[in-house]
Amino acid sequence: MTDLLPLDPGVLPAGIRSRFVPGINGLRMHLLEAGHETPGRPAVLLLHGFPELAYSWRKVMVPLAAAGYHVIAPDQRGYGRTTGWDPDYDGDLAQFRFLNLLRDVLGLTFALGHRSVAAVVGHDFGASVAALAALARPDYFRSLVLMSAPFAGAPSIPFATADRGAAPVAAGPDIHAALAALPRPRKHYQWYYSGREADPDMWRAPQGVHAFLRAYYHFKSADWAGNRPFRLAGWTAAELAKMPTYYIMDRDEGMAATVAREMPTPAEIAACGWLTEAELAVYSGEYARTGFQGGLQWYRCRTSGRFDAELEVFSGKTIDIPSAFVAGRSDWGIYQKPGAIEEMREQVCSRMLGCHLVEGAGHWVQQEQAGEVTRLLLDFLGRGGG
Fold it and tell me: Taking the domain 9-156+308-382, which CATH number applies?
């Protein structure tokens, strides 16, 4: 599929170009960039999440470039027009482990001629890659902004165990069995996304990919009136079940059926200024071609725990570069792992310059409230971030 062309300039704001860079860790990487006309600018790297694309950053790229930055937003491994990754559920999962995803973006910025990156900004699952960048190469990635997904630290190596004897640590309760045993049986979306059925359920959704994504984006945005998040008391089935069904799904339903129930009306779609039908068509066109399995492989790497051991080399390590956190006030993502936002703010990020909850935004904060997110990013960069 190396014959893919750049995105049509007609779908991009003026000042953003679409291009490919081959030979990046086995990939031909597609990226959007702004501020590329002037060599020597400091780089800002923008990393998208699921189910998103480099295109998700279109509303903040030009203002950042106008402030003097070379703004780089790649389609990450498994997404969009980046090719060279294995789309097979039974293929090589190791290529999607997080250290390799970091290698992808490090290789890309090296190829573009940057000896450092002023700020790495990650949204949703992109925040995991951005946080790992800050842990592994703080000399290269000079500041960090996490969006919508708090980072509570690397997997931990057991500590002070030498004198406890050889007794194994007792396993905790099975959260999946507990969710399934609720009066309304439920399941966790990340483990659903890790299963074989998730990609065909969404890619071949009865309503079509375009309508599926419209409902999915609506359901997790501030436009859906039910998004009024609050802190959960703990990682228990009863507490997790307080979240909407896009996170804690009904046990016997897939995601296509889950979001179809919340499909916005034609009037609501017409009123959605942050994601017009033409803009949504860019997403649906890409996912109709690729399917979702590439992004779903990231979930499998996380839920399987298969690659945790290599991340344990960062156990107990703090993020000591200037950092900030931005999320929509209507985003349940900040509370889906109880205690994570507090751990990030109070223990993991030693130079946290601010945690911001943006009014009028749900999970897609940089699209729903692009102006305020741009202001926060520029303020952060001006105060020492980058």
Answer: 3.40.50.1820
Distant-in-sequence, close-in-space partners of 360: CB < 8 Å, separation ≥ 6: 222, 328, 329, 330, 368, 369
Tokens of 124: 């949703």
C-alpha to C-alpha distance for 335 and 242, rounded to whole angstroms: 11
Separation in Å, CA 226 to CA 218, 223, 370 = 11, 9, 22
| Degrees to nearest 5, angle at CA 217 with 17 and 18 | 10
- Structure tokens belonging to residue 250: 């009904």
Q: Give the tokens for residue 145.
A: 């902004």
CA dist 189 and 254 (Å) reads 9
159/352 Cα distance (integer angstroms):
26
Q: What pLDDT digit, counting tens, does each position of 7-25 carry?
A: 999 999 999 999 999 999 9
The amino acid at residue 349 is C
> CA 220, CA 229: separation in Å to the nearest integer?
11
Residues of the chain with CATH 3.40.50.1820: 9-156+308-382
Structural tokens at position 261: 């129930």
Tens of pLDDT, residues 160-195: 999 887 555 555 679 999 999 999 999 999 999 999
Rg (CA), the chain: 20
HEC assignment per residue over 334-360: HCCCCCHHHHHHHHHECCEEEEEEECC
Confidence class for position 1, pLDDT limits 50, 70, 90? very low
CA angle 24, 293, 299 (to 5 degrees): 85
Buried b / exposed e over 241-250, threshold 16 CB at 10 Å, is bebbbbbbbe
Q: Which residue has the tokens 């009136």?
A: 225
Percent of the chain beyond pLDDT 90? 95
CB 376 within 8 A of CB 326: yes
Q: How far apart are CA 218 and CA 362, in angstroms?
A: 9
